[in-house]
Write a structure and sequence with these properties.
By secondary structure, the protein is an alpha+beta fold. It has 3 helices and 15 strands. The radius of gyration is 19 Å and the shape is elongated. The protein starts with 7 loop residues before the first helix and ends in a 6-residue tail after the last strand.
Length: 190
Amino acid sequence: MTQAQKTGLDGVAEAAKSAGARGLPPVHLWHPEHCGDIDIRIRKDGVWFHEGTPIGREALVRLFSTVLRKDPDGFHLVTPVEKMRIQVEDAPFIAVRVDRVGEALRFLTNVGDEVEAGPENEIRVEMDEATGEPRPYLHVRRGLEALIARPVFYELVEMAVERDTHDGRRFCVASNGVWFAVGPAGATGS
């Protein structure tokens, strides 16, 4: 079996390694015929599991994250010869840090991605219907999102200013020329 024909976890690791210093593998261009499921699950706290056991090697998780793709039928690890569906409980990544860099908000994810919020990478906030708590997300790449960790979201709220939006008065943050609503502004008088 050649390197390009490896399957399963070995094939995923080999495809990710082949990208090397060139950047992310072009998973959006790969459309392999062989498809199936693999017992990998990303828990909502960002921990990756294989066959019920946490994947303890951070470098391996980072490697797998580079060949992750979201398709209409779910999340997949994709190589040139294989496409394997995995389970993701919420967002596949967690935004664990934010820094203001000039006019941009730069985020760091738990798998090492650096992402600047802006027109291509929006921040959105959903409200949990059961708890009423915000669930903030950042677009990372090609439909993949990071849940913004609670302490990072608190930093965003501290940076926010009140603005009038199409949804009424909201607290918003700006990054790369785009304003993102992060929550409702305080009660206003009638």
